[in-house]
Amino acid sequence: MQHRVNDSAILDATVGELTAKGWRAVKTSEFEVEQGQLPVAELYLNMCQGSLAAEQLMPLESDGAVVVNRPSSALNCHRYRLVKRLGDSTLAFPRTLILASSAPLPPPEQLDALCPDGQKVWIKRGDVHAERPEDVVAAPRERVAEELRAFTARGIPWVALQEHVPGPIVKFYGVTDGRFFRWYGSEAGFAGERPKVDENRLKALAFEAAAILGLEVFGGDVAFPEPDRPVLIDINDWPSFAPFREEAARAIGDYITRRFAHRKHA
User: Fold this and answer.
1) CB-hemisphere CA count at 13 Å for 242?
2) Cα angle 128-56-99, degrees, rounded to a multiple of 5
3) In this structure, are residues 227 and 210 in contact, taking their beta carbons and an 8 Å threshold?
4) What whole-number distance in Å separates Cα of residue 154 and Cα of residue 191?
5) How many beta carbons lie within 10 A of that of residue 63, not counting itself?
6) Block mean pLDDT (10 aa), the chain, length 266
7) What is the pTM of this model?
8) Which residue of 44, 51, 201, 261 is surrounded by the most CB atoms within 10 Å?
9) CA 93 to chain centre
């Protein structure tokens, strides 16, 4: 089992659940995976984000090992891939342009389409999901070029320009077979009052997006311009599950145990 060092609390908790069930765990860093130092195992918990590690893990998918999440699914969460996958679907997703951070601005009509009624444009790093606050910024149209230069200066080659979706934002967390799904309002936080939205439509949208990307353990953000009209803003593999980590770890551990047993008897 390998994990990404930076946000590994949920992975560590899941490993704890699995070792309590009799598994023996070996932890490996993403750097070690990139170097090809991969323990031989039948089950891998994968929090690696980078392309190099994914390339090392990819053969596991065809070799019959259980990998959660699969490296191909983790790569689908890289924003430039995610935009393409979701853009090709019927899923509700905001207008988004992927471009090199050093490139000229898009044609005026394309930029105008991202900021109707004077709305700000969201500028997000175009590879992995946000790791620092400055990886996702909102800027008025006249400051987009300046913000792009800031991404270039930080060595981020690709960016996504995304239209603003009005309405409350909710954060969600799930496991693919539906045994675990939780959400809360982003503004009020986990302990605050939840916005009045259609929970069934939220759940359907979240699980549809996860299925398109091939994710088994996932989380993300949804905007509600209307209470019954969810729009996916972002989704990624192995989120923190911070407000309910212990409950999530038990659910993920049970899901993985069941999936492994099914694979053994398939």
Assistant:
1) 8
2) 30
3) no
4) 35
5) 9
6) 57 95 92 90 90 91 87 92 92 94 89 86 86 88 92 92 94 97 92 93 98 97 96 94 94 93 64
7) 0.89
8) 44
9) 14
